[in-house]
């Protein structure tokens, strides 16, 4: 009969375990959607392990409960039948989460578009108002970075194709055009740094510097950027980030090496002129910035400006270790720079200046001397060069080769007014001249032409 105790127990066991899988699925899916499990790999993997454990434990518990109630079939059957509604619960929660995320994304895009439009107009009040409406995850540095970008197809400094980029917030400009002109981007940066703590101001300006370098803007913009940075700390003697620094507050404009990256961007983008502007703004170089500053030099005039400002060139040349060997990095890049330079003789002058300052020819890096590195670089560059090198480039390369590869000739005794490097140059020049004389003597004489 339907009303017997056994039948009632089976019904209760069936209903009890029918909802086990759906309720567990609901709990795990809501937890995934509402917590960091969707973005934190560690938490996500932990959730998966716990969910698998629960999925395996539910049938065992149903079996134990059914045995106690003498309704094993009903309990296990209800448990297994509950898998179908559990799948529906899983799909329903994920769909609701997707719809909510799409709605929030559309709202965030509208806010980002309003910020970009205000920046393009140069309306400082509108920029600050639009910034206040962005969600908390978009700080001012990150906001300026995506406003100053070129769209989803831009080549990100991290080397990705747009994955993980903030540029998804904004529609892509036509033909990679700028959303905001450089002048207006400066105005937006000034608007965003007003009234903010120094650390946030510097994050905004770091984003601005990254975008300036990507646009390959002229040197005329750098003094304005230096003026804004000076405003964050008028008494600073070095151009460095305030501590503590929010490392992830710049989005795509994140500078992983901090102070080093600031010097590297200025040196690599504007070279000697950029470093002179840095010095003219009243800034020196932190110890970690010295090697990258030297790496950006393209002539002796820039080096003279650094040393006149108190830069310890000798100490920089003595630094060793991965990435710190100034001469090795310079020489390894010389063949390409000689091809690209409009004044290759300036690079030869720079090598001479480094050697006079105490650079050691005998030091080896990765088992190679400076001479070995330059010769190998020239060989590789010759293999990929599409046209014959210009005579000025060839003359500069010969000068550099004589300076780095003195051909084992000991320097001749000279007056104490000359340096060891000058002695090496003189010995190398004499050796090259002697080789030319020997080659001329060894060449067979041509017979006189018949009249």
Explain this structure to me?
The chain contains 19 helices and no strands. It has 451 residues and is mainly alpha-helical. The longest helix is centred in the N-terminal third of the chain and has 39 residues, at 83-121.
Give a summary of the structure in a few sentences.
By secondary structure, this protein is an all-alpha fold. Helices cover 64% and strands 0% of the residues.
Strand and helix layout:
Blueprint: H1 5-18, H2 20-34, H3 41-68, H4 72-81, H5 83-121, H6 124-133, H7 140-147, H8 182-193, H9 198-215, H10 222-232, H11 259-280, H12 290-295, H13 300-308, H14 313-318, H15 326-340, H16 344-356, H17 370-384, H18 391-404, H19 420-442
Helix pairs in contact: 1-4, 2-3, 2-5, 3-4, 5-6, 5-8, 6-8, 7-8, 7-9, 8-9, 9-10, 9-11, 11-13, 15-17, 16-18
Characteristics:
mainly alpha; 19 helices; 64% helix; 0% strand; elongated; disordered C terminus
Give the rounded overall mean pLDDT: 82
* Secondary-structure element order, N to C: HHHHHHHHHHHHHHHHHHH
Oligomer: single chain
Which value, in Å, is the CA radius of gyration? Answer: 34 Å
Low-confidence regions = 152-164, 408-423, 445-451
Which structural class is indicated by helix and strand composition?
mainly alpha
Number of strand elements: 0
The rough form would be described as elongated
Strand content: under 5%
Determine the N-to-C terminus distance. Answer: 138 Å
Number of helices: 19
Helix content: 55-70%
Q: Major β-sheet, in short? A: none
């Amino acid at each position: 009969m339907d009303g017997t105790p056994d039948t009632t127990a089976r019904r209760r066991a069936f209903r009890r375990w029918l909802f086990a899988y759906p309720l567990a699925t609901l709990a795990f899916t809501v937890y995934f959607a509402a917590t960091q499990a969707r973005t934190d790999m560690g938490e996500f993997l932990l959730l998966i392990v716990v969910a698998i454990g629960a999925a395996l434990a539910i049938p065992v518990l149903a079996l134990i409960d059914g045995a106690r109630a003498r309704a094993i079939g009903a309990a296990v059957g209800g448990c297994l039948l509950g898998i179908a509604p559990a799948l529906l619960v899983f799909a329903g929660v994920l769909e609701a989460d997707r719809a909510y995320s799409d709605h929030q994304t559309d709202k965030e895009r509208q806010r980002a578009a309003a910020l970009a439009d205000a920046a393009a107009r140069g309306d400082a009040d509108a920029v600050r108002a639009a910034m206040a409406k962005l969600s908390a995850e978009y700080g001012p540095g990150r906001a300026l970075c995506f406003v100053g970008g070129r769209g989803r197809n831009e080549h990100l400094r991290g080397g990705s194709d747009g994955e993980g980029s903030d540029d998804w917030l904004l529609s892509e400009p036509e033909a990679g055009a700028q959303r905001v002109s450089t002048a207006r981007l400066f105005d937006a940066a000034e608007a965003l740094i007003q009234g903010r703590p120094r650390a946030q101001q510097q994050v905004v300006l770091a984003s601005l510097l990254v975008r300036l370098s990507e646009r390959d803007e002229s040197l005329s913009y750098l003094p304005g950027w230096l003026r804004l940075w000076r405003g964050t700390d008028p008494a600073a003697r070095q151009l460095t980030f305030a501590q503590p620094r929010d490392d992830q507050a710049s989005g795509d404009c994140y500078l992983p090496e901090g102070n080093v990256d600031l010097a590297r961007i200025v040196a690599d983008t504007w070279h000697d002129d950029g470093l002179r502007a840095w010095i003219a703004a009243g800034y020196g170089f932190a110890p970690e910035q010295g090697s990258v500053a030297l790496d950006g030099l393209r002539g002796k005039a820039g080096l003279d400006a650094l040393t006149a400002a108190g830069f310890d060139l000798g100490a920089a040349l003595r630094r060793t270790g991965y990435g710190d060997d100034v001469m090795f990095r310079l020489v390894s890049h010389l063949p390409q720079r000689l091809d690209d330079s409009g004044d290759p003789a300036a690079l030869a002058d720079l090598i001479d200046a480094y050697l006079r300052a105490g650079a050691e020819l005998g030091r080896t890096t990765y088992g190679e001397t400076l001479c070995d590195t330059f010769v190998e670089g020239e060989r590789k560059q010759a293999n990929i060069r599409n046209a014959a090198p210009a005579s000025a480039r060839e003359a500069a390369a010969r000068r550099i080769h004589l300076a780095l590869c003195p051909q084992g000739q000991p320097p001749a005794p000279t007056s104490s007014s000359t340096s060891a490097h000058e002695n090496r140059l003189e010995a190398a020049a004499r050796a090259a001249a002697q080789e030319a004389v020997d080659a001329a003597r060894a060449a067979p004489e041509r017979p006189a032409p018949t009249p």
